[in-house]
Design goal:
With 515 residues, the protein is of the alpha/beta class. It has helices at 15-27, 72-80, 117-134, 148-152, 156-163, 167-181, 190-200, 203-207, 245-248, 259-265, 284-287, 326-331, 336-351, 384-388, 414-432, 439-446, 460-482, 487-514, and strands at 4-5, 8-11, 33-36, 48-53, 56-61, 93-97, 106-108, 225-228, 233-236, 238-241, 273-279, 290-296, 306-309, 318-324, 360-365, 399-401. α3 (117-134) packs parallel to α18. The radius of gyration is 24 Å and the shape is globular. It starts with a strand and ends with a helix.
């Protein structure tokens, strides 16, 4: 078999692979670049499909769809391509159902659910601890994080059990893990959770639809590397592998990769998510003063974890939702019709009988997607970050690694995929065609494998005023509860709860705005 000769071969035509090829071509248009993709489409973990809608047909995303203003890499791509963005609809009340199938269904309009004063205080101290730890994380080299070994030896579930006081908050954090990672907190290293959160600017940035958040709008010493498929063979001077770690581990490498790299990719489980779109004649939930956002604790009858308004720019009404984590594993074994019926029944329960009269239901089980095998991201089990993390990005001879899991900003998101692809492209240019880089870029590449300075946590004096406000609100609540017999005092309780909720949100957001 005669091998075709290329300068760079990119394995995977997702956002990371396409970004790497695009940057290489921009810097040196004479490079011969080949992109290999196993699917019959490009886009990786993003895919758009036309679905029946009130105006005939419209387009919705069944993979990654949200971007945020702080996700600079994907925002630059959007601007370069001349694309438009529009805000996630979040006007109106949100539905909140936790505590089991028989618990009361509540609504709220703020960023934080209408939790009891005790749970709000628990949430405040928990988020404060998390954000303090996030501020000490070194995303470039997590092993340099203070107490890295200890943090990496425990799961996110272990930390929740140790530091959350109330059952309600523990349930909320378990649901958050499913919604963000598609995985149970007991399967994930706590240090990985901190690194992931720090790369996004804080915990709340992963969960909200407010501005700045995630839902806002070598072959050793050889001159050549050989990439072989079942039918063809390619020679190149560099290879950029962009597929998810668990799939990169299935590629046969000769000579074998370093043990650290192999062990790492073989122990990074991928999340499990089933995403669904359901279209309607009208956005009836808006007429009821609801935002379409539902946060529910999954049960035997309710498979969904979260939903959002997905009405298109063309005003075709729709809802988007996710079946995630353990629920996804259990419900993926059932018939599609049974899943659809359970989802619709849950929407009727939370939004009203109008939810039963839909136009079309479409779902995407990413665990069954060939050359994906799961979504949205691969996570690290306890112990991996401390000892094996450098192998995630470190080149192996002429093989360079990209993919959103290797990003240091917005890891796991589309913006992270773009950043990782661009970083891998710069590595290749620096090694093989350094004249295409500026002096500053060459210097940055020489130091890219060096040690980074660990960020300093916010000073205690900077946080004092916010913590004092939380304490005052809590004391006000306690006093109001003692005097709660009159209507006037009950009104005081309501106002104090609102004050406490705002203080909790201010405390949690403090570190985000400081980064």
């Amino acid at each position: 078999m005669t091998a075709e000769v290329w300068d760079v071969v990119v394995v995977g035509a997702g956002l990371s692979g396409l970004s790497a090829a695009h940057l290489l071509k921009k810097r040196n248009d004479k490079l011969r670049i080949l992109i290999l993709e196993g699917k019959d489409r490009v886009g990786g973990r993003t895919v758009t499909k036309e679905l029946p809608a009130s105006d005939g047909v419209d387009r919705w995303d069944l993979g990654g769809q949200w971007v945020g203003s702080t996700q600079t890499h994907i925002m630059e791509v959007i601007q370069e391509l001349g694309l438009e963005i529009y805000p996630q609809y979040n006007i109106g009340k949100k539905v909140h159902h936790m505590g089991g199938p028989d618990a009361k269904v509540r609504t709220y309009s703020t960023s934080i659910p209408a939790l009891s004063p005790v749970v709000l205080m628990d949430l405040s101290q928990f988020l404060w601890k998390i954000d303090r730890l996030c501020a000490t994380v070194c995303t470039q080299d997590p092993s340099r994080t203070p107490n890295a070994v200890e943090l990496d030896s425990m799961t996110f579930h272990s930390y929740i059990e140790q530091h959350a006081w109330t059952r309600e908050l523990k349930e909320e954090m378990q649901l958050s893990s499913r919604a963000v990672f598609g995985i149970e907190p007991s399967q994930m290293s706590f240090l990985f959770f901190l690194v992931y959160s720090a790369a996004a600017g804080g915990v709340l940035a992963l969960l909200e639809s407010t501005p700045g958040s995630a839902q806002e709008f070598k072959v050793k010493d050889a001159e050549w590397a050989t990439v072989k498929t079942d039918t063809r063979s390619f020679l190149c001077r560099a290879v950029i592998v962009t597929c998810p770690p668990h799939l990169a581990a299935k590629i046969h490498y000769k000579p074998s990769l370093p043990h650290q790299r192999e062990f790492l990719t073989q122990n990074m489980p991928v999340g499990h998510m089933i995403k669904f779109i359901i279209t309607y004649q009208t956005a009836f939930w808006r007429e009821k003063g609801l935002s379409g956002e539902i946060v529910a604790q999954p049960s035997g009858d309710c498979p969904l974890s979260v939903t959002f308004d997905a009405t298109s720019p063309g005003r075709n009404a729709a809802l988007v939702g996710f079946i995630a984590g353990l629920q996804a594993s259990e419900w993926s074994c059932r018939e599609a019709g049974e899943r659809m019926a359970a989802v619709v029944a849950s929407l009727v329960k939370y939004l009203g009988p109008e939810a039963a009269s839909f136009i079309h239901y479409e779902e995407k089980d990413w665990a069954k997607e060939e050359y994906n095998g799961g979504c949205p991201v691969n996570v690290m089990a306890p112990g991996l970050l401390t000892y094996y993390h450098p192998s995630l990005r470190r080149p192996c001879g002429r093989i360079h690694w990209a993919g959103t899991e290797t990003a240091t900003q917005w890891c796991g998101y589309m913006s992270g995929a773009v950043q990782a692809g661009q970083r891998a492209a710069m590595e290749v240019l620096a090694e093989l065609w350094p004249s295409t880089l500026t002096q500053e870029e060459q210097e940055a590449q020489r130091h890219s494998q060096g040690l980074k300075t660990t960020p300093s946590p916010p000073s205690s004096s900077s946080m004092f005023s916010v913590r004092r406000a939380v304490l005052i609100a809590a004391l006000t609540m306690a006093t109001a509860l003692v005097l709660s017999r009159s209507e006037h005092h009950r009104k005081w309780i309501t106002q104090s709860q609102d004050l406490l909720r705002r203080c909790v949100l201010a405390t949690a957001k403090y570190n985000i705005f400081q980064k």
